[in-house]
Amino acid sequence: MTDEEKSKGWWQTLPGMITAVTATITALTGLVVAIEQAGWLTPRPRPAVTTDADPGRAPSGPGSAPSAEAPRPSTTPSPPTERVSAVELPALRDYKLGDATFTVLKAAISPRNAETDELRMRIRMLNQKRYTANFWDSSFRLILDGVPMAPVSNLNELVPGDSAKEGDVVFVIARGTAGAKLQITYGDDRTEIPFSLTAAR
């Protein structure tokens, strides 16, 4: 090959080399731009993390202003109110039967169901003898129209000698009962105490 042909071949390949180098630089530039946009070269700041469970609330922390939160309505149902009516007690409230004295402390009527009421009497028994005595439902009956009715309170206590105890005696009565008598029996003694129930309603 002559010198002229060698010179001509070198100049013919030079533009190709320039084109190849330019393409390589362009490709490297695009790669660097892509890496920069991906954040591989410059770390991006992390977003603030809120630990509050409610969305939309401002994050809490040192220096942050307290946020006012509206009170949430309570989902707990309110307990139903029970209508209780006090029964007027008789003038005589202490009744001595043998070695025991029974005192009617209070009485009240409350609804039991749609048709019946509950008559609850708080009674104190004073045992004045030396030995233990029974204080139980068996000593009490409610007289309605001459018919005795047993209580449903399951009262069954022992009262030591020379001491006293209180207990509730409960009767179930028909709605609208106007009056009744409380019968107390202890040993061979018995008494009946009249009650007016109309004033309690």
Largest sheet: 5 strands, antiparallel
- Number of alpha- plus pi-helical segments: 1
* Helix/sheet category: alpha+beta
Helix-strand pattern: HEEEEEEEEEEE
Q: Give the domain tally.
A: 2
- Rounded to the nearest angstrom, the radius of gyration is 49 Å
Describe this protein's structure:
There is one protein chain. By secondary structure, this protein is of the alpha+beta class. The chain has 2 domains: 1-44; 85-200, Immunoglobulin-like, CATH 2.60.40. 18% of the residues lie in helices and 37% in strands. It has 1 helix and 11 strands; from the N terminus they run H-E-E-E-E-E-E-E-E-E-E-E. It has one helix at residues 3-38; strands at 85-86, 94-97, 100-111, 116-127, 133-136, 140-144, 147-149, 156-159, 163-174, 179-186, 189-196.
Short note summarizing the structure:
This protein is an alpha+beta fold and 201 residues long. Helix content is 18%, strand content 37%. The chain contains one helix and eleven strands, in the order H-E-E-E-E-E-E-E-E-E-E-E.
